TrEMBL record:
<dbReference type="GO" id="GO:0005524">
    <property type="term" value="F:ATP binding"/>
</dbReference>
<dbReference type="GO" id="GO:0042802">
    <property type="term" value="F:identical protein binding"/>
</dbReference>
<dbReference type="InterPro" id="IPR029062">
    <property type="entry name" value="Class_I_gatase-like"/>
</dbReference>
<comment type="similarity">
    <text>Belongs to the CTP synthase family.</text>
</comment>
<keyword id="KW-0315">Glutamine amidotransferase</keyword>
<feature type="domain" description="CTP synthase N-terminal">
    <location>
        <begin position="2"/>
        <end position="280"/>
    </location>
</feature>
<dbReference type="GO" id="GO:0019856">
    <property type="term" value="P:pyrimidine nucleobase biosynthetic process"/>
</dbReference>
<dbReference type="GO" id="GO:0005737">
    <property type="term" value="C:cytoplasm"/>
</dbReference>
<feature type="domain" description="Glutamine amidotransferase">
    <location>
        <begin position="318"/>
        <end position="547"/>
    </location>
</feature>
<keyword id="KW-0436">Ligase</keyword>
<dbReference type="GO" id="GO:0097268">
    <property type="term" value="C:cytoophidium"/>
</dbReference>
<dbReference type="GO" id="GO:0003883">
    <property type="term" value="F:CTP synthase activity"/>
</dbReference>
<comment type="pathway">
    <text>Pyrimidine metabolism; CTP biosynthesis via de novo pathway; CTP from UDP: step 2/2.</text>
</comment>
<protein>
    <recommendedName>
        <fullName>CTP synthase</fullName>
        <ecNumber>6.3.4.2</ecNumber>
    </recommendedName>
</protein>
<dbReference type="InterPro" id="IPR004468">
    <property type="entry name" value="CTP_synthase"/>
</dbReference>
<dbReference type="InterPro" id="IPR027417">
    <property type="entry name" value="P-loop_NTPase"/>
</dbReference>
<dbReference type="Pfam" id="PF06418">
    <property type="entry name" value="CTP_synth_N"/>
</dbReference>
Amino acid sequence: MKYILVTGGVISGIGKGIIASSIGTILKSCGLRVTAIKIDPYINIDAGTFSPYEHGEVFVLNDGGEVDLDLGNYERFLDINLYKDNNITTGKIYQHVINKERHGDYLGKTVQVVPHITDAVQEWVMNQAKVPVDDDRKEPQICVIEANSSFLFQLGGTIGDIEGMPFVEAFRQFQFKAKRENFCNIHVSLVPQPNATGEQKTKPTQNSVRALRGLGLSPDLIVCRSAKPIEMAVKEKISMFCHVEPEQVIFIHDVSSTYRVPILLEEQGIMKYFKQRLNLPIDDQPSDLLMKWKKMADRYERLLKVCSIALVGKYTKLSDCYASVFKALEHSALAINHKLDLMYIDSTELEHSTEVENSVKYHQAWHKLCKADGILVPGGFGIRGTEGKLQAISWARAKKKPFLGVCLGMQLAVVEFARNCLNWKDANSTEFDPDTKNPVVVDMPEHNPGDMGGTMRLGKRRTVFKTENSILRKLYGDEMFVEERHRHRYEVNPELTQCFEEKGLKFVGHDTEGNRMEIIELEDHPYFVGVQFHPEFSSRPMKPSPPYLGLLLAATGTLNAYLQRGCKLSP
C-alpha cells in the first residue's frame, strides 16, 4: 500500500480537496486502484448535525454516512463509492479509544494521547485503506489522505486548532512505519499577490513549510495555489528556501473549471515524480482516462449556449452549502453542451414579509426567478424560508416552468398542490405544523425522536417504479427500479396519495414495501418532478444524474427529442 498525505498551509479553502482528488484521478488513469480518506479535527462524530454554513453541505454515502463534502469530490473525480469510516474525526477516534478502555483492552495502563490516540489513528488509516471502493471489489493500491488544514499551518506558520495535534504526531510516526518508499507528503500552500505591489509573495509558504518540518513532516511536493500563473523566479525561490528541487514545486493557478486541475498537474510531471518516488509500476504517458478529462475540460471552456437555473433555498450565502447540487447541474449542462448559469435565490426574499420590509430585494428575487429557464428547490430543514419555496413551486407549476424538487423540495411540492389544487388551505408538513388538519407530510415511523445524530433515513435505498408511463423512468433507461441515497426524517403521507393522483399529481415511484412515496410527476406539465432521495450525491462528470439531466433538457426545450432518441445525447 502506498500512502499520499495531503496537508494544507497558510489558509484553508484553497482547493486542497480538489488537488487531492486530482492526484487520485491521475493515479487512477495510470491503471492503479485508488481510495481516499479525509481527516477532520472536530470532536463531532460526523458531519450530520452541522449547519451547512459551518463546513458546507453534508455529503451522504451509500452506507448512510454523513460526511465532509470533500468525500463528494473524491467520489466524483475517482468514480468510487466510499464509506463512513473514510471520514475520520477526532470524535470518532476518541470514542473508539474510550470504548476499548471501557471494554478492558488497556487494562492496567494509563490511556494517553501518545501512544493510544496516535496508534488508533494509524490503525484506522491502515485498515480503511484496504477496503475496496471500486466496482471490481479489489483492494486499493494507493490511499490519498487529506488532512484538514485547520489543524496544521495557518497564518504564517502558527499552529492551528489544538485538537488536531494528535493527528500531526500520528503521521510523523506513520511515515516511518510505512517506510519512505510507501509514504509521500504533499503540502498545498497559498502564494498571495497583493494588489498594492502586484508581486507574488513566497514568505507565507516558507513559514508554512518551516512549521511543517518543525512538527516532523517534510514535504516531498509543494503545490502552490495562486490567482494567476506563477513566475519561474518564484518557483526557484520556493525551491531554494523550502529545501526541495524545482521540479518538486507545482503551480496551480485559478482556472475556469476544476476539470482542468488534473491536466495542470500532469503537465508539470507529477506522474513521473510519483513513479520514481513511490516506485510505481506505471507508464509515463497519459492514459485514455486522462485524455477524456482533457477533452471534457476543453469542451467546457468552448461552451457558448447558456442554460439558467434558479436554485431556491435558505443557505444561499455560501455556495458550498449546495456543492453536490451545483456539480450535478454542471455535469448535466456539460452533457448537453450548455454552460450553466446557476442563480442562487434566498427563498425568504420571495415572501410577502420581504416585500413589506425591502421591496427592492423582493422584486429582484422575483425577477431572477422569472427569467430562469428552470427552477430547483433542494433539500433542507426547518420552517424558515418555506413559504418562499412554496411561492416558487406554485409559480413553476402554474407557468409550466421546468421544476425539480429534491427531498424537502418534493415535500413542499405536495404541500403546494394540496393547498392550491385540492383546496386544503391549511395543508402542511408536521415538521412545520404538528397540529395541521391536513398532514400531507408526516414524520417517519422509524425515526427516533431522542438522539439527533444518525437517526434519519440515510443511505442508499431502492425505489421501484409502479408505472411505465413515467418521464423519470425513461431518463433512468427504463429500469424497473433505481437505487439512490436518502437523508430525511419526513415523508409524504401515504393515506392521502389517492386524492393527489385523482387531480393529476402522480406518485410514480415508491419504496420496496410500497409505503413510502419516492417520486412525483405532474401530468400536463413539461417537467414537474419531485424526488424524496438525493440524486446529486451519485452524479459523476461523465455520468450525469437523470433527474438533473431531465431538468436541464426540459429547460433547454430538448427533453422530448432526447426521449424520442431513446435517451441518447446528440453528438
